Known about the structure:
Layout lengths: L8 E2 L2 E2 L26 H14 L12 E4 L4 E5 L2 E5 L2 E3 L6 H5 L4 E4 L4 E9 L8 E5 L2 E7 L2 E6 L4 H5 L5 H12 L5 E11 L2 E4 L3 E2 L2 E3 L5 E2 L6 H21 L10 H24 L3 H14 L2 H11 L30 H4 L5 E5 L4 H8 L5 E5 L10 E4 L5 E5 L5 H12 L9
Helix pairs in contact: 5-6
Amino acid sequence: MTFHEHPPHFAGIPFHSGNIDNARWAYRLASSTDAIVLSEMQELEAVLARRAEASGAEIKRGRPLTDFHQTADGVTVESGNESFQGKWLVGCDGSRSVVRKFGGFEFAGTEPEFTGYSAHVDIVDPDKLNPGRNLTSQGMYLQSQPGFLVLQDFDGGTFHNAEQPITLEQVQTVLRRISNTDVTLSGLHIATTWTDRARQATAYRKGRVLLAGDAAHIHAPLGGQGLNLGLGDAMNLGWKLADTIHETAPEGLLDSYQTERHPLGAQVLDWSRAQVLIMRPEPNARALNAILRDLMETRDGATYFAGRVWGVNTRYDFGGDHPLIGRSIPNFEFTDGTTLGEIMRDGRGMMLHFNGNDSMEALASEYGDRIKFISGRAKEQLGLNSALVRPDGFVARASDGEPDESSVKAALRRWFGACAVPETP
């Protein structure tokens, strides 16, 4: 079930593209991919599944995990009468993660304030409901498309936690109370409930077991941050785990997954909590909501909120002086029309040098097929001369002038370990 909410928002308060100052984002190209890409979940899963299978993965569906055991050398996963052996286990099994529970991961956080409803219904008298998002003295209701409703009922999550069946009568009762109307629903096609419970695993790894996505963190889906956060976990962990399995990872590389991703997860949870706070049906929240609404109508306000929601401001702390280090590499377009995004689809590290440099190319070649050397002029280079880019697209080292060979070597060792070709004495 898909609900489209336009324009993007914080706690239901929209920020408009006309108010956003893109010039503040020095490393986001005007030609980059749109900040918002709408996609059905089924389509996204199909694309990822095709990519995984093309890369050699075998996907086994319909096999629930019933237990697992890990040793110093690997993990045995039980699924009913079947068992599977692996070197590592990554729990990406959602908010009620069995891997997290069986693994004994602490899941710390805060309890919900509301039960959220997402429902596709038939409405007899839709004119009784105001269009768009409506904050009322009893909660919030949104009709994003005809018959597609989102409700927030501030009941402390009681209905969701009770795991009761969602009936037409229940949705109508909640909608009438929140909207303060006698609107009538004649049909319920599909419905689900959710809450603003916000919890995060205190550790993303225990031995050979790791967590990612909703298994590692849960929060209200306000603003659609959860999917991006989970995909970011997968991108960050995937290449590090692959290098660990292939025994090419430098010491501590796998631990950097927790170091980099846990703080971002914590930020999103607080972002969610802040939205819930100013959506509460009480006078103090309404007053704060009004102030934030005024701020988001300003250029500074809209730019700040857009940068947070769209991930433009995401930056890991890798150290180093260049402001691009720790950020996602811009999607540079070369003079032949090729984009960096297309070049990076093979998931390898990359040494980028716009002007070509024999010594940098030689350093990259020492890592065999793990790092490719890319040179050529781009239509917009943002003053950049060269960059070392991790497989997940984040910049490990950058230089506006000619790079210092010793610092490039240090960055290579930090993220890619020892070179595949022994150095000549």
